[in-house]
Every structure is written in C-alpha cells, then in structure tokens.
Amino acid sequence: MTELTEADVVVRPAVPEDRPVVDRLWLLFRHDLSEFRGLLPRSDGSFRDERVEDAFSAPGWAPYLFVRGEHPVGFAFVRALDTPVRVLNSFFVVRGARRTGIGLAAVRAVLARHPGRWEIAFQYENPGAVAFWRRVAAAAAGDAWTEEPRPVPGMPELPPDVWISFDTTPRTA
Predict the structure, then answer these.
(1) Integer Cα distance of 145 and 77 in angstroms
(2) What's the start-to-end Cα distance of the chain, in Å?
C-alpha cells in the first residue's frame, strides 16, 4: 500500500456545523481507548465528552477535522494555544484509514499550524500509539524529544500516561 501524504487528506479547523460528525467520531475514539483503560460507557451508551465541548468553545482550544474525499477520517483537539506549550489533547484516525499515512500526514498538518513546543500523551498499553507517537516525535524533532510517564490526574488507579515533548520551532542556522 502506498503511503499517503498531506495532499491525500484535508486537515481543516472544525466548525460548529461539523459538531455532529465530530461527536460520532468521538464515540469511536473513546471506544478504542476503552480497550486500554477499561473505561465503560455511561448508561445511555455515550462516553465522557466534555473535551469535545471544550474543543469547540473554550479559550485556547482548536478542533480539527480530517477528511479524505467525502469521508471524515479523524480529528484532533489542540489545547493550551494561549500558553508556551501546546498540548495535542486528543487525536483519532478511524480504523479503516490507519496504517495508510493519513495519521502522520494529519498530525504534521496540525503541528505545522502551531509551531512551538508540544506535549502529547499516550498509553504504554497501546502499542500502536507508542510506535506512532515516537515516530511523530522523531519526524518533528529528530532526537531532540523526551518521553516521561506522568500520573493521570484524579485517577490514581490508572497506569500513568506517557508524555512526549518536543519543539517544532524552525531552527536558524
């Protein structure tokens, strides 16, 4: 399979009219994460979704939608845009689009929109995420990135999240 590029996926800011699509993608995202954290849906079948609301309405947040042709294939939520270190709060690519290069193309596009220092969390229990985010960090910063486990705030029963940190600020010669 040929690896896709930024030209094969459109990464654009999500607007309020995209909210129903993002809400549905969010359910898929949370369902995928439930495998690694044992988190169950609420009684109505939904998962916690305050991050979606924050992404669309809170200061310092930006939601992005990934589209290939007419198909929504993922999203990203960036937070802390009003601080020195941006956080890729949530990132998701639908299973049918994984391992095609869409994820790497999408994350590169998101990072390029906000050059500077970044932090991204993932879970060691998710081997696909471990490999993907290490690849992203190396592509973005060479060997100038760090990785460290940090406790999940307010959830001491969970294993720590793993955070990678790097800087995408263009370097001058």
Answers:
(1) 21
(2) 37
Q: 0.90 exceeded by the pTM? A: no
Cα distance between residue 117 and residue 105, in whole Å: 19
* Beta strands, E only, 4-112: 10-13, 62-68, 71-79, 85-93
Question: Using one digit for the tens of pLDDT, what is the confidence trace for 127-139?
Answer: 888 999 999 999 9
Q: Whole-angstrom Cα distance, residue 87 to residue 28?
A: 21
Q: Judge whether 109 and 11 are in contact, CB under 8 Å.
A: yes
Query: For 48-74, how does the pLDDT look when each residue is reduced to its tens digit (9 = 90+)?
Result: 677 889 999 999 999 999 999 999 999
What is the arrangement of strands in the sheet containing 117-122, beginning at the earlier edge strand?
Answer: 10-13, 62-68, 71-79, 85-93, 117-122, 161-167, 146-150
